[in-house]
């Protein structure tokens, strides 16, 4: 028995030494140059490069340490949602006319929307017009001869949800990128707030108007003007269901109105308010609006809105790092069609991703905004290998962003002859810059990679350049 145990230990040690030899074989001055980049002095970094086909380790530097992934986390949701629901899955929202038609264009009853969590209705990223979709709805109503609705416009939601994970910073929630995913979303959950500013530094600003205009939505500006060449540092504060908003911070001085992009408060209710006003302008009167948190069964919808195929939504989520799209996928994956009652627990998210190789990860939200998210570079490259097995290489690459062509990936390895040999997802928040993806080496073979940098002090651009040089060196070498 002792001989067998000794033999097993020797085999294990031999295997480990062989693996380390493989990893060491591909080390080069590229890693030394990366590690000694001035902007990374005192920072933490992890590097994992593996063969896509076999998952064999090529480079492993701190690859099993925990790092804040930022938007690299979106790869988990965009790939897993296509894996679970299929590339052709579409969100649907039926519209029902629940009542009876009376004389002279009078309809006695309610018009009822039943959304299903689609993040893309009237999405600007998909080049959809809110006014055009509202006109489609109005024309559908008028084609039925309806001129007056003795009833309500109703949004029946599938339970009550708090759309924002509790771990997302409070300063993000009121802004367009931090609204979370509601059961009904529209216009990318974004409202543009236009401020009158001064040409003088330190002057107060005032709110001119918002677009879209939402009844009852108020904004208090405490924003001051800064130097003309400074960035937009205006932050909007407010809870998801609360209509009042406060803007703090600074915007660059100037003469023209300045736009700050905020989050729409309570999108289901805000949409009904906008829709009622549009109905009135088009000659269709409605008594009232209402939100209900139970979806009842009705027959024969008068209209059904269907989203674009899921693979298209996943693709654009990666291309432009759209937070509420990714959060919507989290709801779909974890909650499914069950009625909501609060927000998704991190325990439920963890349990879902255990089979995908993230048993030791700490995943707090659906998009990467939460600063407490922790994953390992090795988990990310292993995940891409797993998804290649599940989806196939073509579909995997179709969902990811192609260098030089898609969204923000056009900035990675820009002006490099190797740019189009990379499919990559960036991830960045304060003191965090990561890139995870796939590259085709000059040998023709495909490799997964994840380079994560946390806690650096300096410019994001300098970190990006360091990561680009590292990845480019292995495209040439492998």
Question: What's this model, at a glance?
Answer:
The protein is an alpha/beta fold and 478 residues long.
The biggest beta sheet reads: 5 strands, antiparallel
Number of domain modules:
3
**What integer is the average pLDDT?**
92
What is the terminal separation in angstroms?
43 Å
What order do the strands of the largest sheet run in, or round the barrel if closed?
A: 2-1-19-18-17
Give me the CATH fold name of the largest domain.
Answer: Beta-lactamase
Query: Could you state the CATH homologous superfamily of the largest domain?
Result: DD-peptidase/beta-lactamase superfamily
- What is the name of the CATH class of the largest domain? Alpha Beta
Number of strands: 19
Structural class: alpha/beta
- Portion in helices: 25-40%
| Outline type | globular
Number of helices: 12
Strand coverage percent: 25-35%
CATH architecture of the largest domain: 3-Layer(aba) Sandwich
Q: Which residue ranges are poorly predicted, with pLDDT under 50 across at least 5 consecutive positions?
A: 1-22
Q: Gyration radius, to the nearest Å?
A: 25 Å
What would you say this structure looks like, in words?
The protein is of the alpha/beta class and 478 residues long. It contains 12 helices and 19 strands. The strands form 5 sheets. A 5-stranded antiparallel beta sheet has the order 2-1-19-18-17, with helices on both faces. Strands 14-5-4-3-15 form a 5-stranded mixed beta sheet, with helices on one face. Strand 17 and strand 18 (432-440) form a beta hairpin. Helix 3 (74-85) packs across helix 8 and helix 3 (74-85) runs parallel beside helix 10 (377-391). Mean pLDDT is 92; it is low at 1-22.
């Amino acid at each position: 028995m002792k001989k067998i145990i000794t033999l097993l230990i020797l085999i294990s040690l031999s295997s480990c030494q062989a693996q380390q030899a493989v990893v060491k074989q591909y080390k080069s001055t590229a890693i030394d140059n990366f590690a000694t980049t001035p902007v990374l002095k005192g920072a933490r970094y992890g590097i994992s490069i593996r063969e896509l086909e076999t998952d064999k380790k090529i480079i492993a530097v701190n690859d099993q340490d925990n790092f804040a992934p930022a938007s690299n986390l979106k790869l988990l949701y965009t790939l897993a949602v296509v894996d679970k629901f299929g590339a052709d899955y579409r969100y649907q929202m039926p519209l029902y006319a629940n009542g009876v038609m009376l004389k002279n264009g009078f309809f006695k009853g309610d018009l009822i929307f039943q959304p299903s969590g689609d993040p893309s209705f009237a999405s600007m990223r998909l080049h959809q017009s809110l006014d055009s979709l509202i006109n489609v709805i109005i024309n559908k109503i008028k084609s039925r001869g309806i001129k007056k609705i003795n009833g309500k416009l109703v949004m029946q939601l599938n339970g009550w949800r708090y759309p924002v994970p509790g771990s997302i910073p409070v300063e993000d929630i009121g802004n367009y990128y931090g609204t979370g995913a509601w059961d009904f979303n529209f216009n990318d959950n974004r409202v543009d707030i236009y401020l009158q500013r001064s040409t003088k530094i330190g002057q107060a600003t005032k709110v001119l108007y918002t677009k879209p205009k939402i009844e009852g939505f108020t904004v208090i500006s405490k924003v001051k003007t800064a130097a003309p060449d400074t960035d937009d540092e205006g932050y909007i504060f407010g809870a998801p269901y609360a209509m009042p908003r406060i803007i703090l911070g600074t915007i660059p001085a100037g003469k023209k109105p300045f736009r700050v992009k905020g989050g729409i408060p309570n999108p289901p209710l805000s949409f009904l308010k906008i829709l009622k006003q549009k109905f009135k302008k088009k000659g269709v009167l409605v008594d009232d609006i209402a939100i209900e948190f139970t979806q009842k069964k009705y027959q024969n919808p008068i209209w059904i809105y269907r989203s674009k195929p899921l693979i298209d939504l996943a693709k654009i989520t990666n291309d432009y790092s759209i937070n509420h799209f990714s959060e919507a996928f989290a709801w779909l994956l974890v909650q499914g069609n069950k009625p909501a009652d609060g927000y998704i627990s991190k325990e439920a998210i963890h349990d879902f991703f255990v089979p995908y190789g993230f048993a030791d990860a700490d995943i707090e939200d659906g998009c990467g905004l939460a600063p407490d998210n922790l994953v390992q570079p090795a988990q990310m490259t292993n995940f891409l290998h797993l998804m290649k097995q599940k989806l196939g290489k073509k579909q995997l690459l179709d969902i990811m962003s192609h260098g030089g062509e898609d969204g923000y990936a056009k900035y990675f390895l820009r002006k490099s002859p190797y740019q189009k040999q990379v499919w990559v997802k960036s991830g960045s928040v304060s003191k965090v810059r990561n890139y995870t993806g796939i590259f085709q080496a000059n040998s023709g073979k495909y490799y997964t990679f994840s380079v994560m940098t946390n806690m650096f002090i300096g410019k994001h651009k300098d970190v990006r350049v360091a990561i680009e040089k590292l990845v480019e060196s292995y495209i040439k070498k492998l």
